Amino acid sequence: MHIKGSYVLDAMSLCTVNLQDEECNAKVQLLDSVLYDLQDGLKIVTNPKFNQTTVEVKGTQIDLISLNGELPSHAFSQVGGSAMVFESSSM
Fold first, then answer.
1. Tens digits of per-residue pLDDT, 62-87?
2. Statement: residue 89 has pLDDT above 80
3. Domain ranges within the chain, ordered by starting residue
4. Which string of b and e fits 47-85 if b means at least 16 CB within 10 Å?
5. Per-residue pLDDT for 91 more than 60?
6. What is the rounded distance in angstroms from the CA atom of residue 6 to the CA atom of residue 38?
7. Which residues contact 54 (CB under 8 A, 6 or more apart)?
8. Residue 88 — very low, low, confident or very high, per pLDDT cuts 50/70/90?
């Protein structure tokens, strides 16, 4: 998934991946974008045995809002694979 120069407003999540029991070799790039009033930005859970998932977040602003008061908000959360976060901010 490659997202660049985008504006996302009023959503539960931009991207949620939950592949704990499968091999996943996805590549996710979120570049120069604004995520505003989201419960979650990126939540990625993959099996740590398969470290082929890569995530890059660069130049992106993430502004969270609690849409469901029972669940915590996450700008970026990842289990498994590798991540690179540069020049990004979360409010």
1. 999 988 778 888 898 888 888 888 87
2. no
3. 2-90
4. beeeeebebbbeebebebeeeeeeeebbbbebebbebee
5. no
6. 14
7. 26, 27, 28, 81, 82, 83, 84
8. low
Predicted pLDDT at 90:
59
Amino acid at 89: S
Which amino acid would we find at residue 69?
G
Cβ atoms of 1 and 29 within 8 Å: the answer is yes
User: Following DSSP, what letter does each residue of 29-66 receive, concatenated?
Assistant: EEES-EEEEEEEEEEEEE-TT-TT-EEEEES-EEEE--
Q: In the chain, count H helices and then E strands.
A: 0, 9
Q: How many CA atoms lie within 13 A of 58 on its CB side?
A: 8
Cβ-based neighbour number of residue 38 at 10 Å = 22
Q: How is residue 34 written in tokens?
A: 């604004």
